[in-house]
User: Fold these one by one.
Assistant:
Number 1:
Amino acid sequence: MIQMTEPFVHIDQLTIQYPPKMVLNDLSWTINKGENYVLGGKSGTGKTTLAKAIAGLIPSDGRVSIHFDPTLPLSPKVHYISNWYQFTNLEGDRNFYYQQRYNRHQGQDTLTVKAELEHFAEQENLDFADIADKVVEIGFENVQQSQLIELSSGEHKKLQLVKGLWLKPQLLIIDEPYTGLDARSRVVLNDWLDELAKEGVQLILITNDQKLPSTINRFAYIAEDSRLINVHGALDFPKDNKRQKKKLPEFLKEVPQTDYDIIAQLNNIHIRYGDKEVLKNISWEIKVGEKWLLQGPNGSGKSTLLSLINGDHPQAYGHDITLFGNKRGSGESIWDIKAKIGMISPEMHWYFDQNATVWHTIASGFYDSIGWFIDVKFQEKKQIIELLEFFDLIKHKDELLHTLPLGKQRLAMLARTIIKNPPLLVLDEPCQGLDSEQTKYFNDVVDELAQHGKTLIYVGHYESQLPSCIEHRIVLEKGEVMTNVGI
Amino acid sequence: MANYFNTLPLREQLIQLGQAEFMDSSEFADGVNALKGKKIVIVGAGAQGLNQGLNLRDSGLDVSYALRKEAIEEKRASWKNATDNNFTVGTYEELIPSADLVINLTPDKQHTAVVNAVMPLMKQGATLSYSHGFNIVEEGMQIRKDLTVIMVAPKSPGSEVRAEYLRGFGVPTLIAVHPENDPQGKGWAEAKAYCVGIGGHRAGVLKSSFVAEVKSDLMGEQTILCGLLQTGSILSFDKMIEKGIDAGYASKLVQYGVEVITEALKHGGVSGMMDRLSNPAKIKAFELSEELKDIMRPLFQKHQDDIMSGEFSRTMMIDWANGDANLLKWRAETGETAFEKSTAGDVKIGEQEYFDNYLLMVAFVRAGVELAFEVMVEAGIKPESAYYESLHETPLIANTIARKKLFEMNRVISDTAEYGCYLFDQACKPLLADFMKKIDTDVVGKNFNEGKDSAVDNIKLVQVNEILRNHPVEIVGTRLRKAMTAMKAIKTV
């Protein structure tokens, strides 16, 4: 029985470089049968690169060997679920804009979820009956008829997970499995992973999270010198260095001018897509200076509600909405509205201009554009430099945004959000994909900003990881307001 | 109705044809003010109608949609498009009488019927807007003398008009005022405000005329944009099959090749596209394209002549009256070509491979762009107009071929473009018969560089580069592209 002693995955001195950067240097790793790993540790150590090399998505020069077990009724494959999804429309186009899901038109741009799953089933020879229950459990049954473009970020994450788990590959690698998932779905996911492990699927999860499937029995991180270090548990992973708190730039300490008392007033709002009602009778008043938390499960209508406030939703016209003292549809342009709002959301980040450098990303915040087109003025340039220094991004200023580690990208997006010192900050899951240290740093900055007269709407899933300035909470469920209270 | 252009004295024809001024951004400082508080009613809610309306409303303007009674009663797609986005929708009778600006965004072929229905309902002194001048110039539609007639023509599909606006940018736009209909002298102010409302002022605006727009648009679409891309694609595919290249590979190369190749054209002009080839390949493509230009020049000239004389639109309108008999027949024939019936193979073709293995298409594109541009300019059209209607639009059309081949291209483009495309294609193929006999797989289907060393003669290369870079389409293009700095790269591979 030689086969049994052969390791499942064997990596022998793997080196991967993206000149001038060496990402992995002489890394060796052996995964035996029955070992289910969590790969954690600091950002930028090459975890994602390693995962992609194992999955064969980047060339590994024959340094990675995998011994599938022909006796298992599982597909002899490695499947990698990326942290960053990308989908195409029916014609293979990927040029979307983040507001597209609110603009209604009759032509179909992308496949429906159902069609996408059917297509996947046909391609991989799978049977939908095998996951019918899971789809319900994970709260994904109501979106079957939705087009891919209409999904929220959390729902997209679920789609990637459903596909990957359905496949039952012998090795399943999930990069940041919990990003953007609501609390209930996390539990469902962990149980599902445990079930698969029992059937023989081996796991590598890339995360620093501590609520893990019980089947996880190995923990490792990649050290500075590319050695793979085994540890006892997720608590032992090295953490990113505590960021040194810097002094907030002076221009952000100015209280923004407001000649109105109420930032936003929404009365009895209903938003429908065909027969589907995504917001039901929503009323919400936000006064100047208030700090709000907006919560709700994936697909409960949070982003749609925010899109009514930041000028992104065409159906806002004709509803009883007053923003910054002006009734919506009374002659204001969306650019007048956006000028008063600093906004960040996972969708905006996903669809952000791929050609934008860090500098251009931040500069575009002055014009509320996705990408940068106009020369900035002297004073604006000064502010950009101050913020780059504040967020320790100065040495990355000419790099393309999407090539930085996710944590740094989020900081650059936050810098874009606050660069014009707007009266209202709309932070829709700003810490999605950040680890707890990064999240804490981010929220500390938000708290400090909030002291200077800004109004805040913050969307976050976990109670434990919120800015402390929050004083009001609104909770949505299936498009309805469940709670609307001070805290 | 008489052809408007043909009723003009030569002096006036030349003035209107030669109208093309690239506008300075300071001309748009007044924003949308000229239309602020005015009632804007859009007729038609297809891709252009819906997306322009969404932009205008998001710019703070008052927009509603007038649709035909049947479209409303039967809840057709146009009705759904408008109501799903919370627009007011009504019949012509309900909405047109109170409109200050009526924007006609229906297909060309319906213009006469739409304008005849709308005009009697329009209030004294209102404005009527077009996005294409065919109805005014070729059909000679006479508009009531109290009405102002303007044109605002974004040079992109409707979905792009919306996407670019929401990015905070816009698409290049052409604006015009009909000299016969500007009784109050407000035409330019309103056209500029409308242009700002859809975001066009951020990407470069060309001050044009109805005549210049029509005569250049027709020329561009039937020669380089649709005609030549169709001919080149079919001939390339057939050649590869004849020479034993795998059909799946050939199909994919042709379907996606023009998009990849013209993406380089979009960013760097003809020289940018040619620079993607190795030096020996560039010289080969140059030589082939010179030959193609010589062979096809008379055909391009004939198309321009027929457009100028009104002969083209006359014969096309006869076909309209005849229930599109010819158009439908030719469309069916295109559907039957071997390329159209082929399926793109499941093979990976790298971005550079599309250039190296499809040099023939690079030669076709260079020849077609330069010829269309040269012939238009010779005919009195200004280089700025000629640029937009040749080079600028080529990648947009190529994108439709990548989506669903030629059938899709012909379905998406206007009726006039489709009709002209078939005329060109039918005449061009026999013209190129001898040329194609000499073509082998080294320039279509296989890597031209394979087995060759990359040496070239210095002087020859310098000469070729100089000719490419100094062509007038490159000179005007460099200037106009500067205004489109935020041009989005399309992910082609």
Number 2:
Amino acid sequence: MTTEGIPQFLTYQGIPLWRHVRVLQWALQIVSGVLVVVLVTWFFFNIGNAINERDIPYGFSFLQRAYQTPIGHSFIPYSPSNTFLYAFLAALTNTIIVSIIGVILATILGTFIGVARLSDNWIVSKLATAFIEFFRNVPLLVQLFFWFYVVLALPPIREGYAIAGRLFINNSGVSTPWPAAPSAPAAAAWIALAAFSVIAGVSLYKRLTRRETMTGKTSYPVLYGAIAAVAIGIVSWFVVAAAFGQAPLVISNPEPHGAFGRLAGGFTAPAGLIALMIGLVMYTAAFMAEIVRAGITAVGKGQTEAAKALGLSPLKALRHVTFPQALRVIIPPMISQYLNLTKNSSLAGAIGYSDVTNIAKTMTQTAPAVSIFVMVMIAYLAISLTYSLIGNLYNRRVRIRGR
Amino acid sequence: MVANAHSLDSPALPPPRSETGAIGWARENLFNSRFNGVLTVLAAIAIILTLWFSIRWAASEADWKVVTRLGSQFVIGQYNTESACPGQNCAWRPQVGLLLGIFLLGMAWGVAGKSIAKPVALTAAIAVSAMAFVPYSLDRMGWDTRLLLLANLPAVFAGLALARYTPLGNVRGIILAGVAAFSLTLVLLGGWVPGLQPVPVLRWGGLLLNVILAVAGIALSLPIGILLALGRRSHLPVVKTLCVVFIEVFRGVPLITLLFMSQVVVPLAFPQDFSQNSLFRAAIVITLFSSAYMAENIRGGLQSLHPGQAEAARALGLHGWQITFLISLPQAIRNVIPAIVGQFIALFKDTSLVYIIGMLDVVEIGRAFIQGNPEYLASAKELFIFLAIVFWIFTYGMSYVSRRVEQNLGVGTR
């Protein structure tokens, strides 16, 4: 009997199709893909239905409308006549600034506590352990409420503490002197020149450090770098002042104003911001301390001992030998802590601070919820991606280079 | 010479006093350099001052009335109020759930034998029974409530006996009993059987709500996380892409945003007559959020395995699923126990975020009370210190148990 003339798939005698790995894999892929597509389509279909039937607003045209609602606090000037888009961006600026300041403070505190945890001093190491075990095991929300009510329990504005007549601490927050720009172009010009002076100082520092390592001549890189930066900064200050006829920045002091003693001028951080900052920094620092500790212990003990044998002091050994190597272990989890801090700042709404989640929540009362949901998602994903990108670039610089 | 020979026979002199005992320890650990000496003194002064002021504050100035005033509301929220459970005393229902939980701990003790399970089960049972003697008025709770609390001590031994003397005394038995107990508790709490007054889920509150969300989240996020991790490592492009998108989206957005949007957007995505409740939605969002993180932890564990493990299993004739579930996963999970438990702890802490969808968990019960009764505003600090301690006991307990389990499994020593 011959099989000639019959198509091959009819005479197939291999593994049965329902047990064939490749067939099964393709079936799994197709089924899962189709399922997800069907589900998502169904959701959109339902949302579309709801929009039609219940007359729910949709689209992004609302962004050009005036928001007409005050925002509790914003770092950029805002008035209720601004558009939804501007209000959203103002709230996003709040989140970003809180995140950046929080990340810097938490990194400093976390590194400090992580090093203290490894100290050979029993009391110091136990204190650091207690800090870590307490602050990372209590929900951030509880901590935020605690700090918030501590600030609220301060005396009211008129009976509040005034330190040297400049720094005001009371139950509506902390007011400090703050630079203010009498004319915007002068300030912008000086800030650009100041940035240049910092770059110049850093590059001088790098040059001198290289000379020191290459030739062994003492070159004082930190000293000369700092002198260069400060000198260029001061000179450009006077140049700008002469060119524009006024100082680029003046110090604005908070001063009691009006019948209720409200403070005008300077910079006032409201109670919510203060509590948010303290809570976020303490909470994140506890996690960072553990990361720093793990990174330092990951560096071989021989490295520390070799540094000691070379006559480096413990602090110098930490700075020049242990830490640069520990960084490779520390950076990836540290980046995810930066992201956590940013995401955790969304708890601000609980203590009345206007971060992007809180404002988005308020906006859903007068604008389409689905659109706002998409905007908030994109905002947070963009922040996450930026942090990951910067972290990964830095990580690439410090990683071990194979030779 | 003679004197020397004699001294060879005499016992060796002990080390000098300054090198042993408390003094030696202090020299070694507190004053081994000038810098450390200064640090020690400064730290000691700081500790003594802090302790002195905080103890004085806690004992005399602090007003703990807010804690005793809320009392059982911390535990069950407004579950047993007249509006939630009209005409009946419903306090026994969450208490039966508690009894079942303690009973399960007893079973765990019976199965695990001499391990961390025993002290945990005993401590929990004794602590809960001791609540029966708390002198504060327990709202609508009377002597029956106190008796039910006392019943937890026998419950732990009943669980122990069941595990020791019946075929249920193994891990599978505990899982079965756990699922049964959890479902029974939910049915009882909801009053979803004829004859019981139904209680709307929005009235479930207090620590009860945190624990229900945490238990459901922990039980579901681990298997979902495992599936996501396997999907992300798979070679099938469609499956892999779906898993990566899911994980990255859920990890990129704060939980509170997801919870809030689940309240606003998710109802639109289902047909109007589709029955939904906010507890169910909150549980799903928390579980999915947590499983995205869990997936990354487990992926880390899978990556830490030497490829030789899977190759050896293949050489022994095991096929795909067997290699994954019998060889790779058990080792991978063992390697990342701290990360997994860390995620469980994070999940438990995150249950406090359900305030955003209007549910009264233990934190929100307290905060809402303060807001509604301004005369207690001054004792808000006391309230949140109390809540911090309550959460700390749970979370620190979890991390302590995980460390002991790791020791028993010999992670890092084999």
